[in-house]
Amino acid sequence: MQTHENRIAIVSGAAKGIGQELAIQLAQRGAMLALLDIADLSQTCERVEEVGGKAIAIHCDVSKEQDWIAAGELVRKEYGRCDILVNNAGIYPNVHIDDMDYETWRRTFAINLDSMFLSAKVFVPMMRENHWGRIVNLSSTSIVTNAVGVSHYMATKMGIIGFTRGLANDLGKDFITVNALAPALTATPGTSGLPDAVRESVVNQQAFKRMAVPNDIVGPILFLTSDDAQFMTGQLLAVDGGMMKVC
């Protein structure tokens, strides 16, 4: 299915987990990629090439403005434009409020939320040039759970929803859609260190009694970044195994 043929897609946090799986499937659907991470991206690039895709690897600390600016310059030089931006990078430190320091609070906000603003400032102008764009920001279903030790994380993920809605309003006239995705707790290297009690608490609140895997999350992102989602913007899409209930 060439649903993303000749689209230029930026994916942050692409070295592993959801970001890596998304990069592979975007390549399979015809997209050309710019992959961002502070970790080694060679494995993701190799897997993209194995499915016949093209990707450039960009070392990027998503909390730093200069890194985003440099990434934008590289994308402009290599591809000339940007069509799709998926803000997937994030951290999930489990720290109870009694033990949390301000540095942890600020670092979580910088990586999880500030990066959304910085990426938009760099890549939205490129999307405007072609009056077409898809932005997907990853939030989290943690905002409706009873998990402890994630108050800082929940705050960033609620902030992402607000920023997504506001940005969608700002960019509607440019035919650029902006949506947020709230994945369930997903089995990735980034969540491997969570206590078993946290995992069990989340899974027990779902209709599907298992943790999500990256492929569960990627399909909805592919939809949101395609032509099929052209009239969907400013929305939060929960991909949570039935955790969020309709009231």
From TrEMBL:
Q: Which InterPro entries match?
A: NAD(P)-bd_dom_sf, SDR, SDR_fam
The answer on whether this UniProt entry bears the keyword rRNA-binding reads no
Q: What is its EC number?
A: 1.1.1.311
Query: Per UniProt, which keywords does this protein have?
Result: Oxidoreductase
Keyword Oxidoreductase tagged = yes
Molecular function terms, GO-annotated: 1-phenylethanol dehydrogenase activity
Family the UniProt entry places it in: Belongs to the short-chain dehydrogenases/reductases (SDR) family.
The protein in question is named (S)-1-Phenylethanol dehydrogenase
The organism named in the record is Pseudomonas fluorescens
